[in-house]
Design goal:
Number of helices: 19
Strand content: 15-25%
Radius of gyration: 26 Å
Largest sheet: 7 strands, mixed
CATH topology of the largest domain: Aspartate Aminotransferase, domain 2
Number of strands: 15
Number of domains: 3
CATH class of the largest domain: Alpha Beta
Amino acid sequence: MNPSPRSLPAVDAAMRHEAAAPLAERHGAGAATAAVRTALENMRREILSGGDPDISEEAVVFAASKLLSERGLRRVANATGVALHTNLGRSVLSEKAIEAVVEAASGYSNLEYDLAAGKRGSRYDHSVPLLKELTGSEDALVVNNCAGATLLALAAVMDGADISEAPPEVIVSRGQLIEIGGGFRIPEVLEVSGAKLREVGTTNRTRLSDYERAINENTRAILWVHPSNFEIQGFTESAGVDELSSLSVPVIADVGSGAFLPISDEPKVRDVLRSGAELVVFSGDKLLGGPQAGIAVGSSRLISAMRKLPLTRALRADKLCLAALEATLDSYVNGTATDELPTLRMLHAPAEEVEARAWNLARKIEAVSPELSVDAVPSVARSGGGTLPVYEIPSFAVRIRGTDADGLAARLREAEVPVVGRVYGESLLLDARTLLDGDEKRIIEAVRNVRG
């Protein structure tokens, strides 16, 4: 016979159970009590729907514990083989960047204070000298994300246009009208900026002559977008920034990933500027390896216009982002980026090193769970995060067989430090390339608890 809602234990009774004490100690008495109430309410609804849940005090506390473990941001072990996994937070900050964030968060700073002059300064000046040195630009601006930087850039070239006679136009190739993460599309960003989109060419072929024919008295800029999250192959043609810069129209280049060092055929920010772009925008948390940020580098004319827009305040970066970005850029200036930035270490680690890590982890898993079939196999890792869509990185993964792969993957995601791998056929793969220091110990503990 199904239980009735009246048979549910009281909140106080559940909180007096022995399992509730460590829960309250870990999360606080208030949070634990609130979770117990929620768990009881969930059980009440299940009963009224005809369900037959376990309503013991221990079960209530367990359900409350699960609710608390699932809330908020949590550290996870990324064993997917995707370095810039958007769903898992993209770039991991370097130790220097983390120290800079802690320093900025734990005290006051000169965020908007000019120490030399003893008066108000500008948050937009931070990181500018480093960005100018690294990219060769005249000026730079940092906001909270790349879509925001693109929007500001387009709004800046529209600023002052007389839209009563004819709307200002921005020319874009049809092959570059891309959609980025979260469903944001380039045409929609253009619309918000106030610009009229003028499409040229076709999906697979856009020539320089297509741009030339589209230019008129209302043209304010050409937007060149690097297709960083897809690739068109076969019968294709496109005009590069160097060609477009010959048309006497400002070229705004959205390169997305923000590569400062060579990797595959990804365009480097400095090279795109040298090709003639008046402005280049890119992300801070992709191939740059820093915090989420939108960065614009280029001419003083456009950067100054962007700074003056009222919208810039709504998109400004906070002190923690600016501190982390400055520390990240320092690593590039000092020539230590590939050693200090976790993202770059992951992408450039030799396959032999990754293989050794995979076998070491496999042997440790086998030791705590001898009933499983565990070995290390070749794998393919990826950059991810909307970067290098066809770039495959040789890697190695721990392969776990001898159990329900989907079930094991789900239970590992429920660990105190969730472990996120990938299921392939009847195996669970834990790619060693994207594991950070300490993740092996976390994975061993998770497997031990699952099998215990």
